[in-house]
# Entry
Amino acid sequence: MKPDKILLDHGSGGKISHNLTMELILPIFGNNILDPLNDGAIVDAGGSRLAFSTDSYTVDPIFFPDGNIGDLAIHGTVNDIAMCGGVPRYLSLGLILEEGLPMADLETILRSARRAADEAGVMVVTGDTKVVPRGAVDKIFINTSGFGPIPDGIVVGSTRARAGDRVVLSGTLADHGATIMTQREGLTFDADVCSDSAPLNHMVQSVFAACSDVHVLRDPTRGGLGTALNEIAGQSGVGIRIDEDRLPVRPAVAGICELLGFDPLYLANEGKMIAIVPAHEAEAVVAAMRKDRYGKDACIIGEVVADHPGRVVMATRIGGSRIVDMLAGEQLPRIC
Amino acid sequence: MKPDKILLDHGSGGKISHNLTMELILPIFGNNILDPLNDGAIVDAGGSRLAFSTDSYTVDPIFFPDGNIGDLAIHGTVNDIAMCGGVPRYLSLGLILEEGLPMADLETILRSARRAADEAGVMVVTGDTKVVPRGAVDKIFINTSGFGPIPDGIVVGSTRARAGDRVVLSGTLADHGATIMTQREGLTFDADVCSDSAPLNHMVQSVFAACSDVHVLRDPTRGGLGTALNEIAGQSGVGIRIDEDRLPVRPAVAGICELLGFDPLYLANEGKMIAIVPAHEAEAVVAAMRKDRYGKDACIIGEVVADHPGRVVMATRIGGSRIVDMLAGEQLPRIC
# Structure
């Protein structure tokens, strides 16, 4: 039975989000640009292609180790544009502020956003500020939207994975999700657990320079790697096989996940990307990623197969294999 | 003394909003595209110009006579792009939903948004849905961002008003503001008080067809006509003189304003535009607006003068004159 009210699960980025999109939003707004459901839209502007994306940020807490809602909001949209093959250029910044928000917090958040924009090489060119009465929003929500040109010859998309391709991951899993989780639970650890929130657009350019035929780019944010790979497998009509042994997870993050019962495969990343590329170019892509400051732990984690189309299967550490489904419920609301 | 917390006034669209923008946001993000503070940004994309704009909608109630937050969100961004001289084409839709929002309400809102997009001739090409726990947002907030090309030869902007120009208004004032106010207060009237929320982009094209040298376009939303004219006077370094006698206000709206103590000059409009044009083309602009279904009450309301630069002065009905300042406080939070 379909729920008659919005549930937290509808925002998980996982299966129930996917259903809301497929059953309500697409039937109403569907068009040939929206339908592919990539991280952003690819639109025509005077004969050249632009990548256009939007995201609202509602993360709680608004300040967390190695980031805050301000830089997160810039990184997120920069990365979505980059995952479409676009060179992010212009961003908008829409602020929704709760009456009573300390001005100093707002200033810190905006300064972080500016630094993030500078690092990514994008400009905030338009904006909007709304203030709502106490209790109508929790502290601050930010929307960023933006666009940038897609260079000629670049064609990436989640329908383009082909059997034989390799799946390259740019670094450790679940850092952002585990960080927000520990903050939310009031846990503190000696261990170094901090958000991976980062701009990936420069790394994407290095990947394009190293590989002439990148098939798919995706940043596994809400819903994590597991959900992102499922979407790609479904949209490309292929199977994906990954090796648990090869998945990079920081020991501290792995420990937290075990302690709290979360699976790092489904926790959000905010500075990691998946590239699906022809096998013979995979090592070059890994090498290109490793040269970037945000790609030092890049590695090949699996491959695209003709078997089990639409499914992701993981070879486990103990020698078995298990199906990696999309995230079914909500692991953690307000992760981004 | 500067406030150390965000106040409702900071979102009014009036003087205190303006201060927040000038004293905090511009010093952090300032750049040559953002600085002009038009309704949207004008950016370069492969040699052609695009108008790019964003707005978040937090209106309360979410359903009101003649509209809801869904069509309002489409109209608002369509109009901001049109006020930059752009032809709105692609929109994004970012939803922030409260856990427990009735699915039927969401569907009604999205269907209205789709109808509004169709009427305006724009496509929703990308989106994002976040769900936050009960109490973290009030029902539903929507961000729309979007862009479209600016045809060659079109140059409008709030610095371009010149002494001698006429100020043309496309219709009655304060309809949206008065409607939200009566809903909020739980007042019901026999009289026909309903939102003017409407797309203005087709009317803008008619204005361009009728007038070869449009100087300024602006939709007087938050902060109303009074605030919009002050911004133009300040940015163009000119005075503006308007006649109270000529300002079109529906009798029912005027009555509500008197009853509740609001000034229609500062109440929000969501389907009205100001055009500042050379005197000899003003009548043609009025005629062009009147042919549009949303411009039947268009008229000339005043002129641009060399006297009192930066100030707006109104000749009152009783023969005096008064300075029309920017909105100082918050008339009504969550008007849009």
User: Anything to note?
Assistant: The first helix of chain A runs from residue 15 to 29.
